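WARN  no MSA supplied for this record, continuing single-sequence
INFO  ligand: zinc ion
INFO  echoing inputs
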Amino acid sequence: MRSLPLPTDTQASVFALCLGATNDPGLQARLTAIAASLAASGVTYHANATAASLHHVERRPSVGGVTKAELTGLYEEHLSKTSGAARAVYDRIRSAAPNNRCPLCGVGSVAHCDHHLPKSRYPDLSILPFNLVPACHFCNDKKRAKYPAMAGQQTFHPYFDQHLLKDPWVRATLDPGPPPVLVFDACPPTAWPAVDQDRVRRHFDVCGLATTFTTNANDELPILRDRLVLQGSRGGVPAIQQFLDDERDVHLARPNSWQYATYRALAANAWFVSGGYLTIP
Ligand SMILES: [Zn+2]
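INFO  complex generated
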């Protein structure tokens, strides 16, 4: 997971681009009539996202005389479409993640803009920049139309939830096998508010992070084995312990990465350090 700065594009500027590109005079008039209502939706969204209460955002199937299909059509016609009038906004949001790394998992490459609150349930938020988050294909596909019915079901929002990333809560556990395998789960600090504990567990489940992290970490084990053999030849068990401690500490900058969780688990595992790594195929 990674935090991101808020998009610089505003709800009003995106709406104006969409409105200007709408050719149907009837739809243009109906959109103009709901401009204030859509702006209010954006303000309410920001307030709820800041207060970690997005489950309070109302699901509106239509707004005034504008249907759900017409609202989501604004996104499809003017933002995500390559030739859309607001496509530059879509591109700016999608490319905002450093090194194109998905902020929802910290592993995949960004491929889409994900509607944090899905447009199928919240069509009035279809073109709201704060509701659009760069995401990899896997996370985007896993999230789909899921939405928070209660506070604990709010998944991590990269623009608003930096506080959920300060303490490590991604946990790796080494199953000695053979062969040794790392398994991942969400284990937030018990001192956290219960809602935040529920939220990171929910995020972990919704985005399928157990799969993503397990795949990446276990793929790395054969390479790690060779590194540890080298360390062992230089300085025995103390050198191996030092190497794993150092790897854990350098990854502490991203305390909820699979890398930090992996090295934290391995450095603390006396069996692994004292030769268990040799059973990695
Ligand atoms: Zn992802």
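The mean pLDDT is 97.
INFO  checksum written, moving to next record
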